[in-house]
Amino acid sequence: MTPPRILTASLVAGLAALALVGCSTKESATSDSGKAVGPEVTVNATDSECVLSASAGGVGSTTFVVTNNGSKVTELYVYDKDNRVLAEVENISPGLQRQLAVDFSQPGSYRLACKPGMVGDGIRADFTVKGT
């Protein structure tokens, strides 16, 4: 091979290796700083449902992975026992997925709301945080 072909082959091999690294599975999501942000709970949001893969978790960070399988843009809100918004992720277009990391500092009952069309009180789901 001539030197340009060797360089091209090396570049292609390097890019292929990087692509494979990006395909690995994750046990937990990471923040921008690279720190783990806790276990993941998937949220299947449709125009008529808000289905969580788990209804309970522990004190600390939890990442909600929201997939919009509906036909309208949606949002996900997390409320505390006093109905205050703890966290939210907005403008999730149909077919897209977004992540929302929430730090639950206290055990208790929380509510999540998927809001298809980004209006109203949304479709509610309970989430219990256990621990001390």
Task: List the SSEs and their pairings.
Layout: H1 3-21, E1 40-45, E2 50-52, E3 56-58, E4 60-68, E5 74-79, E6 85-92, E7 97-104, E8 108-114, E9 123-130
Parallel strand pairs: 1-4, 3-9
Antiparallel strand pairs: 1-2, 4-7, 5-6, 5-8, 8-9
Can you give keywords for this protein?
132 residues; 9 strands; globular; mainly beta; 5-stranded mixed beta sheet; 1 helix
Describe this structure in words.
The chain is mainly beta. It has a single domain, classed as Cupredoxins -  blue copper proteins (Immunoglobulin-like). The protein contains one helix and nine strands. The strands form two sheets. It has a five-stranded mixed β-sheet with strand order 3-9-8-5-6, with no helix packed on it. The longest helix is centred in the N-terminal third of the chain and has 19 residues. It is globular. The termini are far apart. About 23% of the residues have low confidence.
